[in-house]
Amino acid sequence: MTEDGRDVRDLVLVGHGMVGQRFLEAWSAQPAARGWRVTVLAEEPRPAYDRVHLGALFTGSTPEDLGLCPPGFLAEHGIDLRLGDPVTAIDRAAHLVRTRSGAEVRYDVLVLATGSVPFVPPVPGTDAPGCHVYRTVEDVDAIRAGAAVARTGVVVGGGLLGLEAAGALRAGGLATHVVEFAPRLMAVQVDDGGGAALRRRIEELGVTVHTGVGAGGVLTGPDGRVRGLALSDGRELPADLVVFSAGVRARDGLARDCGLPVGPRGGIVVDAHCRTEDPAVLAVGECAQAVDGRVYGLVAPGYQMAETAARTIADRAGAGFTGADTSTELKLLGVDVASFGDPHGSAEGALDVLYSDSRSGVYRKLVIGADGALLGGVLVGDTEGYGALRPLAAAGGPLTVAPEQLVLPAGFAAAGPVALPDTAVLCSCHNVTQGAVRAAVREQGADSVAAVKKCTRAGTGCGSCLKQLGTVVTEELAAAGVATVQGLCEHFAHSRAELYEIVRVTGVSGFSALLAGYGTGGEGCEICKPTVASILASLGNGHILDGEQGALQDSNDHFLANLQRNGSYSVVPRVPGGEITPEGLIAIGEVARDHGLYTKITGGQRIDLFGATVDQLPLIWRRLVDAGFESGHAYGKSLRTVKSCVGETWCRFGVQDSTTLAIELELRYRGLRSPHKLKAAVSGCARECAEARSKDFGIIATSAGWNLYVGGNGGMTPRHADLLAADLDRDTLIRTVDRYLMFYIRTADRLERTSVWLERLEGGLDHLRAVVLDDSLGIAAELDELMDRHIGSYRDEWAETLADPDRMRRFASFVNAPGTPDPAVTFVPERGQIRPARPGEAGRPLNAPVLIAGARPEVLTP
Amino acid sequence: MTVQIHDGDRWQSVCALADLQPGRGVAVLLPGAAGQVALFRGRGGELYAVDNLDPFSGAPVLARGLLGSRGDRPTLISPMYKQVYDLTDGRCLDEPTAPDGSAAVLRRWPVRVVPGGTAA
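ok -> structure tokens follow
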């Protein structure tokens, strides 16, 4: 209860950015939160999003992709989020805030998370049309609109955000300049050597860099629009577009106006518990000056402050927030840059260990203290080892490995694993120590990186610690004696990818030989048998039912049909791209009618025929094959369909012929056996009617070609596909999909969809792009050859089965009474078709001979 | 060579040994109320006959399952929900009881090979 007798207390949060959302999550997890009502007053028109990855909007992501507020989160916790209604004043005496719309909201506790504003240097002309800042989704929209008609862009600021903005302008096809006042790029994070390496790499990409010079003023033309930028050294850069990205300033105006103290360079003054001078008001993130006198412009310290504030309000004040690690690892314009600990070696007696190769643009420096401890470092062009080095520097212990070994780039280093103390912070976004990760594995039963992510949140922020996380999880599982054998099952200690390589390299062509040569003996099982069958099929080793392979297949592959719950099967003929002639429809309809099958349109734009017995399968397929149909592989871990919209041929909005491409792709990849099923789609315009971004590979037409998205998924854990490459021509597109699929087939685990595979793939999307587009592993020719072999050896499984008496023998209901319908598989009528009888329901077997006489489903009525 | 199953009353000839593909099964319809049997031939030539009805799905599908092994035990894996049965005693190794509360144990049928054709 409050002092004035109210049951519920009011918490008001000002600002719904990344730190604001993080505060809401931390607060909702506090047991004390139940007695509070939470109101969030936000200026932006959308809920919190990932501002750090704003640049992704230039490469195909949507603002929704960047969203941080999970669906249902606000409702679940009863949070009242008011968008587009910023607070304009705080009345501390009355415990009230006023908003732009005139609303007054009472608070018992007020949390300010107003963030920061981009700093625009005080020079003339910065408000001219053509000048931009880079902070919000709306800013990006404005820059994109401007970039569409501009030819030259200048970014003022060569720091982290400035280089991101420059990357965005480059991606938009603009001649791009970066103007930085400091003598080097990323002056805060890297030293002169690192800055020089970074500059070389960025200039190679066609960005012109000007350092040691500031903006003197924006030059405008007669129309008032930007025509260039005057520099402080008197030069003039012609430009149609200027982006100011020269740092940020804390947004502390509300606090100043109500008399709360702010720091000398801005930032609301808070103590270690994030409290301002007024105990009812707290401040977190970039708007606050932390107790160490710094205003942190990175998200990780903001998150730590959000956690601290939540604990403070819940009266559970712990150690508080006294300062943070400002390490960063990122990719700027395709160049890897990392900086951690004390990168400048400012400590007494600190020494540098340096590796620099100007030719390849790699610069690596470690700062070693007088006592031999790692203090910090700068890595440019090759950030290998960052995941282990950063926590090591933060922990401050002595090195167990010679620093000379650590400083060498990947490939040179022969150093053993770096031993980290348990106090080392692995995930600085969520402040999770190695000890906490180990405890999650040991005590909470988390047995995978995914499980550890779930219970500690480690790795769910920027993701840069994922690799290190994987190492620690594996180590801990091994230490606990949990067999982390990457092995498939008790019969093979190899992973699926390893078995694939064994089969590919040795040419072993049968399960027995593989089990004898590489397995642990026994008969095999439901895991290894179908997996090996799939690998053999992926590598083009003949018909899946031939010889020994026939005995390995799961029931579905064994009968080339889909087992349904009552023991009957369903049949799906291929309908490439979902395009079908009236004759085709009639043929399918006649088959279904004559065999009394239940029919339903599938999500993959084809027709599923249900209720067939094993005896009926060859009869049904005889007619389908005669009518020109072939297996749709609905039963296989293989390509299902390539869904499409009608595209520009018919659609008023289409810009490319999506149907023709979908048909071509479906025919190209039909029958391709893979670790799991593959679904695809092609949309003829950005309206995306084919839902391509929910597919393993999805293609969306642009006016210039095709955008290729990969790793999408519907199902239990939906995932939007990521843009792999944009504006591809047809041939490049097909070659890229070829390699993507073959690389997936080669490296994925058993039953691992592309979405999970891509999440797990070391190096992620960038690595995949390098492999399939730049041939970084030198395997592209092999992948192409494997795909050619698949396409060349494709035969319709059903046509071949019908032609082979040996394969046909399996389609008998009973070995001692073939043709006798299974008396235990019964059906009842429903809505003019059949459905399986439920337990206790009197149904009738599907009697093929009777139905073939032209019977309608009605005859089944008991 | 003919395969025979004892239906509780007498030996029934069900098929030729050559009808059985090593590693896979076939369904057998026994006369009268005996019902359906799933008959398998292992890769080493051994024969197994158990109920065809899957206790977990209630569907007559076990003959379409895969043979396997767990440790030394030969196993049968249901094609429906993938429960694993020990072929030496018919017991389900994954779950002790079926959804209807009964013990998840498959009846094992005596099986033998006799010389001669199936007409016997």
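Residues 730-747 of chain A form the longest helix (18 residues).
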